[in-house]
Amino acid sequence: MIITDQAKVYINKMMEENGESNLRFTFEGAGCCGPNFGVTLSNRQEGDKEDIINGVKVSIDERVFNAVQDIILDFEGEGEEGGLVLKGNNSCC
Hints:
By secondary structure, the protein is of the alpha/beta class. It is built from one helix and seven strands, in the order E-H-E-E-E-E-E-E. Strands 3-2-5-4 form a four-stranded mixed beta sheet.
């Protein structure tokens, strides 16, 4: 997984505003092509794999660990009009 510098700035801002210190990839059920995942600002859960990616503390539910390895978390847009985007999420659905 890659977190771009632009995404890092946005994530850090959101963490500060929400009093959180961890970006978590969650299991959101199984789809036709494997596990579906979500991204939240929340505490690590038991069984999560932990890492620091581009200075961002990240925990990943073990059920989606392989699914998120090749993604790029980026920021697109300007200021309040922008947001995070996932690139390289090769879903067959």
